[in-house]
């Protein structure tokens, strides 16, 4: 998503400038081409050498520095940018931008660019709350600028309040979302299920499975980065869900069923990556079952509803997963037909480095026409993009 994208990063004179070194590093690791502009005040907090070392590119400070024999810096950078990010954005810089001033290289570049502008405020709580600052923010929003909300926490003054710069992972998500506005899933609503379900035996014990949610998380992130509004319906997991998506937490298969039925009412795509328990305990015990009170334990399981098979929205592209330990293609194709799916993703859970709890997957894609595509062992995010490539090819509506 960030690979080969041109990001102009404007750093202004606030203590949060030190965090922007990490942001720069993360963008470069993701393959972005990062050009840093620093205000004179910013160089009092972090040296230009820091950013030059991270980006392997020159850092721009002077208004009229020549990038080449003929290119003026602010014009060249403004034209090159896919996005301009101002982080941290001080009250002073926000005021200049709101009033169209161009008295330094950064403000001139923002004024000259046609690229989207993302602003990340960082300042003292009272400065942020001041009506002048709020009016300036509102004015910039009205002109199309996107803001990353300031966080609440310890400020440079030692006070605790709102005004600290957003965390790096939040800023990265915001950058991806802005760049994804022209993505091939922009304007689409995508519902993804992830993780397993826990079917209670008593208040302590449950029947479950080994699903970690990693594949579903990768699908949610990939859809988000392609411009979709994503609802992630998430069973119990130890992982932190991706940012920038709506998360609906559930525990049991019945709770997931209700959540999916609600979410797909306005959805274009449903990707059912969750490993939903096929059975649940018919009558869970109201209190913890004591080990000392019995020599054995029998529980009666009843079948859970087929969530994906019962969804019949004709305008919805339905994608299922088949985790199999034998007869992979035959079982997956039968599942695709039984549930009236447009695409099924089959993986052999006995294959090394594939399946539950790992970062890679080896899958086979089978579509409603019967076409079979075997993919090599890939990172789950790469698998997610392959799945969504197939989904995109089905628009405007599934046949």
Q: How would you describe the overall organization of this protein?
A:
With 399 residues, this protein is an alpha/beta fold. It has twelve helices and 21 strands. It has helices spanning 17-29, 48-55, 73-80, 91-98, 105-112, 125-129, 131-142, 168-179, 214-225, 253-263, 328-338, 380-392, and strands at 6-11, 33-38, 83-89, 117-121, 146-147, 151-154, 160-164, 189-194, 199-200, 206-207, 229-234, 246-249, 269-272, 279-281, 301-303, 317-324, 343-348, 360-361, 363-367, 372-374, 378-379. An eight-stranded mixed β-sheet has the order 12-11-8-13-16-17-19-20, with helices on both faces. Strands 2-1-3-4-5 form a five-stranded parallel β-sheet, sandwiched between helices. α1 (17-29) packs parallel to α2 (48-55), α3 crosses α5 (105-112) and α9 packs across α12. It is elongated, with a radius of gyration of 25 Å.
Which features characterize this protein?
single chain; 23% strand; eight-stranded mixed β-sheet; five-stranded parallel β-sheet; 399 residues; 12 helices; alpha/beta
Q: What order do the helices and strands come in, and which of them pair?
A:
Layout: E1 6-11, H1 17-29, E2 33-38, H2 48-55, H3 73-80, E3 83-89, H4 91-98, H5 105-112, E4 117-121, H6 125-129, H7 131-142, E5 146-147, E6 151-154, E7 160-164, H8 168-179, E8 189-194, E9 199-200, E10 206-207, H9 214-225, E11 229-234, E12 246-249, H10 253-263, E13 269-272, E14 279-281, E15 301-303, E16 317-324, H11 328-338, E17 343-348, E18 360-361, E19 363-367, E20 372-374, E21 378-379, H12 380-392
Parallel strand pairs: 1-2, 1-3, 3-4, 4-5, 8-11, 8-13, 11-12, 13-16, 16-17
Antiparallel strand pairs: 6-7, 9-10, 14-15, 17-19, 18-21, 19-20
Helix pairs in contact: 1-2, 1-8, 3-5, 4-7, 9-12
């Amino acid at each position: 998503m960030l690979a080969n994208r041109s990001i102009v990063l404007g750093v202004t004179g606030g203590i949060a400038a030190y965090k922007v070194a990490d942001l720069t590093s993360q963008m470069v690791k993701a393959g972005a081409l990062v050009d840093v502009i620093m205000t004179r005040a910013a160089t009092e907090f972090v040296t230009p050498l820091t950013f030059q070392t991270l980006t392997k590119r020159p850092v721009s400070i002077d208004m009229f520095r020549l990038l080449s024999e003929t290119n003026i810096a602010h014009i060249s950078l403004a034209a090159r940018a896919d996005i301009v990010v101002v982080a941290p954005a001080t009250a002073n810089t926000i005021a200049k931008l709101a009033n169209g001033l161009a008295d330094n290289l950064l403000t001139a570049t923002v004024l000259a660019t046609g690229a989207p502008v993302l602003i990340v405020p960082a300042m003292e709580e009272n400065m942020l709350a001041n009506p002048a600052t709020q009016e300036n923010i509102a004015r910039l929003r009205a002109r199309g600028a996107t803001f990353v909300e300031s966080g609440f926490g310890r400020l440079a003054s030692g006070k605790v309040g709102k005004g600290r710069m957003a965390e790096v992972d939040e800023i990265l998500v915001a950058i991806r979302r802005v760049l994804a506005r022209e993505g091939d899933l922009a304007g689409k609503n995508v519902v993804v299920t992830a993780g397993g379900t826990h079917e209670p035996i008593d208040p302590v014990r449950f029947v479950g499975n080994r699903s970690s949610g990693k594949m579903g998380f990768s699908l949610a992130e990939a859809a988000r980065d392609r411009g979709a509004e994503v609802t992630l319906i998430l069973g119990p997991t130890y992982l932190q869900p991706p940012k920038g998506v709506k998360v609906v937490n559930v525990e049991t298969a019945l709770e997931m069923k209700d959540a999916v039925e609600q979410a797909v009412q306005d959805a274009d795509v449903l990707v059912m990556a969750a490993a939903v328990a096929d059975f649940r305990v018919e009558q869970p015990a109201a209190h913890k079952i004591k080990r000392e009170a019995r020599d054995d334990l029998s529980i009666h399981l009843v079948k859970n509803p087929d969530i994906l098979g019962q969804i019949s929205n004709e305008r919805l592209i339905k994608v299922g997963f088949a985790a199999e330990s034998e007869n992979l293609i035959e079982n997956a194709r039968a599942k695709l037909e039984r549930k009236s799916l447009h695409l099924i993703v089959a993986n052999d859970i006995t294959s090394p480095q594939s399946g539950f709890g790992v970062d890679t997957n080896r899958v086979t894609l089978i579509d409603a026409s019967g076409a079979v595509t075997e993919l090599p062992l890939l990172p789950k995010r790469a698998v997610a993009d392959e799945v969504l490539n197939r989904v995109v090819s089905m628009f405007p509506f599934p046949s």
